Amino acid sequence: MKKIKVALKLVLVFAFLQAQAQHLTKKVDVLVYGGTPAAITAALQVKQAGKSVVILSPDQHLGGLSSGGLGFTDTGNKAVIGGLAKKFYQDVFDHYSKESSWKWQSRASFGNRGQGTVAMDSAHATMWIFEPHVAERIFDAWVRDHQIDVVRGAYLDRQESAIQKESTSIKSIKTLDGTVYEAKIFIDATYEGDLMALAKVSYTIGREANQTYGEQWNGVQTGVFQHRHHFIAKISPYKCEGDPGSGLVFGVSAEDPGQYGAADQKLQAYCFRMCLTNDARNRKPFVKPVGYDPHHYILLQRLFRAGWDEAFQKFDLVPNHKTDANNHGPFSTDFIGMNYNYPEASYAERKSIIEAHQRYQQGLYYFMANDPAVPIAIRTSMAEWGLAKDEFSDNDNWPFQLYIREARRMIGQYVTTEHNILGKRRVEDPVGMGSYTLDSHNVQRYVTKEGYVQNEGDIGVHVPQPYAISYGSIIPKSDDCTNLLVPVCVSSSHIAFGSIRMEPVFMVLGQSAGVAAVLALEGDHVVQHVDYKLLKKQLLKAGQILEQK
Q: I need a surface site. Which of 56, 82, 145, 383 has the fewest CB within 10 A?
């Protein structure tokens, strides 16, 4: 009798363990990692094709930077934005076509200025300027209306044991909560490329030497000043002006910037894109952050004293008396040199880096609005601005997405370079188009041989016409992985990525990755074996623009 009871208990325990295992293992056709716009367009494309898909989003909020403050869209040539990306901007248009959407100002008072385009394009029913919460609502509606499974707060376990591969094929991954996800095709649509890295796909960080791909604008760019984001005035970098023995002020590196054209592993600066408002009804005044140190802004103080007055140059307006405020000038919201470790950092270390950026930027706004060293005209004007009370309500009205301008970049089947961007080299297998300027923000702040402070790394080179992006730039080399697509950390040189890295382009490439994933599913599950003729046919059917008309 006892033996029977013991046996029964063992059966029950086994059944329980089996049930638990089933509970902790989920299977889908396609797994999309990331909460970015590219992740959403990829998943939506897969879902519309009738395949099962899940979005694992580390973030609680969907939409990445598009819902995190970048509402003054970097479009370039909007005519090459098609498919679901265009649908997003059409949904924005529909939203602002309603009188009820203009809560804090009238539609007429807003005007119609955008970046390289009108804000509200009635001819094409698109709008390229929007508030953060509007973008998030659209993305949330997409996944809700199409019943896409989204797991929020799902962080990839980045330990080597958390991924299972057979030869070059990923079989499963595990999240930090212990859940295992099995899929036939995986898409890494994060800004960081964590899944790509875990799968041991080849990648790089930082700037290649110019000689690597025969480029001009890639490596260290000392003495090259494309924008007005460098020090024109002769500003001392020392705590006591002119005295090297007094030490360097905060944020200035003592290291040599490197030889012109040389490679390094440094990154262009990050910042938060800021949704500010000057509407008193919706304004939350800037407050002194914990850990505030006015000495962090000495260089800005000296700039003001030298006559610099462009503090509000990039307070680009979005609807309802709000801004998408971006970096501008030699000293602004870009936290230069403070992000180098971010791509490979642990989650805890990344959190610390993000918090440091937030503290710096909050302190910057407080300093400009309150410090007696700031000219009274600028101080008074800055005090009229503040955080928007109706944005980022669960994050103390601060953006939840740091602008990760660049992290890891895949070294895939095809590497896009400035030669592609500048029209000197064509591709035969386009999956989308870009058109924005070759754009890199400053990488480092150093001391010149003459003893003055200077920034390095800012590049802005005109792109003559839209260019095609190769399918090979969103897939790994076949020896690395055969069932992964990477539409954000694409295979490109640093400076080429400076043009590609725009949210509309990421949305385009995300959808194209979704189309390719479906074709791979219907074939042998190898993304490198997808027939491009068939892929092109499906991309065009999905509304993608593959050549300039």
A: 145
Rg (CA), the chain: 24
Residue 429 vs residues 417, 464, 474: alpha-carbon distances, Å: 15, 21, 11
Q: What residues form DSSP beta bridges with 165?
A: 170
Per DSSP, the three-state class of 129 is strand
What confidence category does residue 548 fall into, taking pLDDT thresholds of 50, 70 and 90?
confident
> What's the Cα-to-Cα distance from 467 to each of 140, 185, 434, 436, rounded to whole Å?
31, 28, 6, 9
E strands in 334-443: 386-388, 408-410, 430-434, 438-440
Burial class (CB in 10 A: 0-12, 13-18, 19+), 106: exposed
pLDDT of residue 234 exceeding 60, the answer is yes
- Ramachandran category for residue 225: left, alpha or beta (phi over 0 → left; psi -120 to 50 → alpha): beta
For tokens 């080179």, name the residue. 461
Greatest distance between any 2 Cα atoms in the chain: 94
Q: Which residues contact 333 (CB under 8 A, 6 or more apart)?
A: 271, 272, 274, 325, 326, 327, 361, 364
Q: Which two tokens stand for residue 495?
A: 């400076």
Contacts of 254 (CB under 8 A, 6+ apart): 248, 447
State pLDDT tens for residues 279-297.
999 999 999 999 999 999 9
Structure tokens of 470?
């190769």
Helices 503-522 and 83-96, packing angle to 10 deg: 130
Within a 10 A sphere around the Cβ of 373, how many other Cβ atoms?
Answer: 14
Tokens 């009370």 map to which residue?
A: 389
Token couple for 388:
């928007």
**Pick from 371, 342, 372, 347: which is nearest to 357 by CA?**
342
Q: Is 231 left (phi over 0), alpha (psi -120 to 50) or beta?
A: beta
Separation CA 350–CA 372 (nearest Å): 34
Question: Shortest CA distance to 318 belongs to which of 163, 130, 138?
Answer: 130
Least Cα distance to 328 among 309, 342, 306, 307 occurs for 309
Q: How do residues 299-325 score in pLDDT, each as one tens digit?
A: 999 999 999 999 999 999 999 999 999
Sign of torsion over alpha carbons 254, 258, 259, 261: negative
How many Å apart are CA 339 and CA 456, to the nearest integer? 15
Cα angle for residues 77, 79, 84 (degrees, 5° grid)? 110
- The two counts, helices (H) then strands (E), for the chain are 14, 22
Cα 510 to Cα 36: distance, rounded to the nearest angstrom: 9
Q: How far is CA 328 from the centre of its chain?
A: 18
Torsions phi, psi for 460 (to 5 deg): -150, 95
CA nearest neighbour of 484 among 187, 240, 252? 187
- How do beta strands 180-188 and 484-485 pair? parallel
Whether the CB-CB separation of 36 and 191 falls below 8 Å is answered with yes
> Over 60: is that where the pLDDT of 12 sits?
no
Amino acid identity of residue 317, one-letter, is: L
